[in-house]
Amino acid sequence: MKISYVTDPVDVDLGVIDLFDPDFYAHGDPHPVWKVMRDKAPVHRQTLTDGRSFLSVTRHADVLAVLKDHTRFTSRRGTLLSILGGTDPAAGKMLAASDPPVHTAMREPMMKVFSFSALKSTQPQILSVVHRFLAPLASGKPWDLAAAAAGFPMAFAGALMGLPEEDWPRLTRLSTMAAAPDDSVFGAEEGGHHNLLSAHHELFAYFADQVRDRGVERDDLIGFLTRMDAGGRRLRTDEIVYNCYSMLLGANVTMPHAIAATVLALMENPGEYARLTGESAQTALAVEEGLRWASPANHFMRYAVRDAVLSGVPIKTGEAVVAWLGSANRDGSVFADPYRFDVQRHPNRHVTFGFGPHYCIGAPLARIALRLLFGEIVQLVASFEPAGPVRHLASNFVSGVKSLPVTAALRDGASAPLTSAVADGGRLPSLPTA
């Protein structure tokens, strides 16, 4: 999805805009649309040709209201536009598709594994992975950073789950297909719905095999889920499978596109890159701005469980409500000069990881990895330069960059750690679960 700098008043006909269309995000630009919606139609209804409809919520305050209150807006009927109007087979089984008390019983024990303190000890391994990821820059040749970043999270998610490294490329492709089934890279002849079903079938079957083959003996995240006490009971196999799928999808949706979009923004704003020194607190602020700017998870959907009102607009029981995170992250009532990429922005109340009970459980790991990555980039890379056209994913869920060819001018002495990363054979270390 193009990330534009909206500076002038825009004229948008909301009657012809289709926020459901995945191709709009591959070739169009939703940011001027969202600005008009925030200003003039903060709760906007779109009806599809087949009669299904949804309400778009675009203001920061309204997005928070939808995401935080399960008593008004439920997650059990589906959280993505891809299943608008249908039923979610994962309802009440997957963390992302459940409400309290089921959600609370699953989330609380999982948080012990995904807390910042539990993951802090993984930083040396993550730094090693970072160097391997950046190693191609040492050649001086064009490198598709976005394509490479697609596999970056598997070094963490795959290792935490104890998944064989040889399976990681396939799992990366399948999870990307599940998030962006309409993208041309997966074939237009079968269509997005077929791709989505195919990806789901393969991923669910894969994780079912993983649970069946090793089960409670595993000293990894899958083993933890098998043994976990969820409100006085053990999770069933289908619940473990759904949650493994959700965690893998979450990792592969957020991190790669946050990396690509942040590097792209730094190339477009060289003055901001020049402000970075690699100091940890400064890098942390820059990472948060990159997350706000990228907003990789484009939307989350809820259904109204009772009549409600947002921005003066009545919402009826049963209506689908789509909270557009990318729009909330450009709301001028919350972010000063929201279309400026500011590596020292503070405060930064972005909703990239969601908000409320469903705040992304993997956010601590993502932040650790991204801070280490961009800390190293600042130390190693003097500048990035574009080496080819930028291409975006066709997806209404993922604000994704699928191709970002770059070259890099390295700082003096930067080649040594990158060359060393290549020389060690490229084997990725395992990460402890807790």
Structure, explained:
Helix content is 44%, strand content 11%. With 434 residues, it is α+β, with helices and mostly antiparallel strands. It has a domain at 22-88 and 117-156 and 256-423: Cytochrome p450, CATH 1.10.630. It has a 5-stranded mixed sheet with strand order 1-2-8-5-3. Strands 4-12-9 form a 3-stranded antiparallel sheet. A two-stranded antiparallel ribbon has the order 6-7. It is globular, with a radius of gyration of 21 Å. Residues 425-434 have low confidence and may be disordered.
How are the SSEs ordered, and which strands pair?
Blueprint lengths: L21 H6 L2 H11 L2 E5 L5 E5 L2 H9 L4 E2 L27 H13 L1 H4 L3 H12 L8 E2 H5 L4 H8 L6 H12 L12 H23 L6 H7 L9 H32 L1 H5 L5 H15 L4 E6 L3 E3 L2 E3 L4 E5 H4 L34 H18 E6 L4 E2 L8 E3 L1 E6 L4 H9 L11
Parallel strand pairs: 2-8
Antiparallel strand pairs: 1-2, 3-5, 4-12, 5-8, 6-7, 9-12, 10-11
Q: Extract low-pLDDT stretches.
A: 425-434
Question: Count the helices. How many?
Answer: 17
Give the class-level CATH name of one domain.
Mainly Alpha
Q: Supply the CATH architecture of one domain.
A: Orthogonal Bundle
Number of beta-strand segments: 12
Order of helices and strands: HHEEHEHHHEHHHHHHHHEEEEHHEEEEH
**Strand order, biggest sheet?**
1-2-8-5-3
Q: Would you give the CATH topology of one domain?
A: Cytochrome p450
Largest sheet composition: 5 strands, mixed
User: Over the alpha carbons, how many angstroms does the gyration radius reach?
Assistant: 21 Å
For the record, what is the CATH homologous superfamily label of one domain? Cytochrome P450
Subunit arrangement of the protein: single chain
Distance between the termini: 36 Å
Helix content: 40-55%
